[in-house]
Amino acid sequence: MKLYAYCITRTATQPPSAATGMFDRKTYPITAGELSAFVSDVAEEAIVIDKQSVLTHQKVVGSLLDQTTPLPFRFGTVVSEAQLTSYLESRRQALLEKLALVDGCVEMSIKIIWQKSALETRAKTDLAESVAGNSVGTEFLRKKSAELAGNQQLTEQANDIATWLESCLGSAIRDIRVSVSPSQRLVLAADCLVPRVGLDSYQAAVDAARSERPDLHFLASGPWAPYSFVNIDLEFKSHFGVS
Amino acid sequence: MKLSPENPLSAEPEIDTSHAEEFVEELRRVTDSLPSRINIDAESVEQGLAKLVLTLIEFIRRLLEKQAVRRMEGGDLSPEQIEELGLALMKLEAKLQDLKTQFGLADEELNLDLGPIGRLI
Predict the structure, then answer these.
(1) Residue A7 φ/ψ, nearest 5 degrees
(2) Size of interface A-B (CB pairs under 8 A)
(3) The whole model's pTM is what?
(4) Could you report the predicted ipTM of this complex, rounded to two decimals?
């Protein structure tokens, strides 16, 4: 029998009120000293990614998030009880430190779509001008040069958006993870660690940022368990080589 | 949002946007282009490995292009050398395009997610 792992909490945490886990199995804690990992028994080695399974994972983690801030596993973590217990015991101190780091906080997410058509049009114009009158190989390299210059411009603008967003959120957040993708329309994804008691300030800061840059399209979501700030699934998988 | 200082331990996630369709479209596109795991079975192993190898070749090809452009702009190359280098890189790009077509791979599929570091390309 394998275990589907949802998250890790301090031992005092009560099982989720909605106790039905993956495949309608009971959700219960595996405890090792001060730490508990919430799991459900599963027969399958790998969990099929479908809407129902993803929602079940979120429902269990979310109901624990009502009580405390857990260290969540990513969707699809299946392990043996021995592996899980060994992990909790061997990484006890580090896990307690991670719990302390995110204590009293939730993760809030921001995604931004930008309209970069103006920049792309300019780059294409530069490109057309640069390739006129050259032989084939030289034209090719000039074209690449124009593309790279355009990409550089996009990268600078995307990084400016990231800096601007961080300054807007300022003291409303405890920590932030930002990734920018200048070549994509979905240019920025930011995950913010926000104190629960400061969520109103955070919301006000996001609303102000939206008003300041109507050219950017925002998607804000949360609160979530702090997936982006703990990475225990990555550590766990590299430690045991499990799915 | 249910979470507030008065009720700090009740958390229901919400999604807030005025551009839902746009985000659904973009997120779907990003998800579709994410590299899936390489399934080691007879049918898919060839394409999975081809994807990995072509991703690395594409990464190296882009590095070569950047280096060539840097040398051209730095004035290190004669017009003949620029032409020769440009032709070589053009052929490399065409060859890689052929291989992508052969294995049914789109441009956005040639990438690797390096976790916290970001994406390779």
Answers:
(1) -170, 170
(2) 111
(3) 0.77
(4) 0.71
